[in-house]
């Protein structure tokens, strides 16, 4: 007989996620991933000036606002037919890269590490699940100290971002055609000082710490396999204009059922059979997507839609990017790469690779040269902006009519990874990764949280508007958060 285990909410993630599993004979035999807040930014954007989008969409998330800003401004570049000068492209890359470094460090130390490292018996380290902390006391003590050092590293990454982004989070410099912040020698050197400090932390602390955890929790190379289908849109253009889409630092691609293929955005649709949205909005591509909430829909269990590529669930994120780009350290792992530790290891190695590449990009900036080229709002247009957030593939789609936003859709990494079942009943990537996970004690299901957190879910991105209705004798009112 199966035992039902519910973890609600999953803590140390962004947003509100409920995980429900059935455990039989010490293993998960079925799983459901439920996002429990309503997504509504697309509705807020309707009727606004298109140039508002790159600012409003950054409010989707406080951790990865930069990638939403990039996806949105790329979407507007496409709709406006805007050209971006080299300095504008490079500054965008540096700002987005700074956010990635912060996010990767945040994920391992602040969100995931405490599944393996036992902190002091004081908040924020308690309460916690009991048992299965394996690090020797002295090793554990070192990693707790690194947890504290990571807070400082994250602060430096934010300050580095603000050198060209003006502020962090939610920088204000993105515009169609480039950015608004000029290149100066002082800014280049200030950015470089921060970046060199972060590279030392990443290479000498972050990557070694992930290897230490992998040494003592080696069974997690075989836990959390998931769907084994990988998807990446690609990110960080290395050339200008249309050539930039073809020449990306992280290449786009698809890995499905053991075979690599080129990425085709036309093969993306979103299913809603098990989502709280109207059934007639199912199977739509994002460019024609609709956000029609139906909170009492029978059979549904999540506010996340179910994105599918060519009809199948696909995992997105650092592991997907590393596998598709054939990173030697990840490919050499073979099947073990598709695991809890594979996701952590891929993220750490990617963080180092990106940080070193940013030094080269910084050297390509030209003091005094343009950072943007003017672009006009079209009366009618469609646009698509594809990039990668630290958590995975991120796409924005816009339709403009009469100079205003007629429709806007965002499909974010956690919508891919934490999606519910689709119209064909196929579980989402996190649901599939949970199936087969050993659970020693259903009262302390730490194994479940380790699998879920390896994906770095962000429900703030995937579902980020809640309407509360307050009733009293004087009447009722509502507000949104």
UniProtKB/TrEMBL annotation:
GO terms for molecular function: ferredoxin hydrogenase activity; nickel cation binding. Ni(2+) binds at residues 61, 64, 458. Its cofactor is Ni(2+); Fe cation. Keywords: Iron, Magnesium, Metal-binding, Nickel, Oxidoreductase. GO terms for cellular component: cell envelope. Mg(2+) binds at residues 42, 464. Fe cation binds at residues 64, 461. Gene3D superfamilies: Cytochrome-c3 Hydrogenase, chain B (1.10.645.10). Residues 417-437 are annotated as: Disordered. It is found in: Cell envelope. Belongs to the [NiFe]/[NiFeSe] hydrogenase large subunit family. PANTHER family: HYDROGENASE-2 LARGE CHAIN, UPTAKE HYDROGENASE LARGE SUBUNIT. This is Nickel-dependent hydrogenase large subunit. It comes from Ammonifex degensii (strain DSM 10501 / KC4).
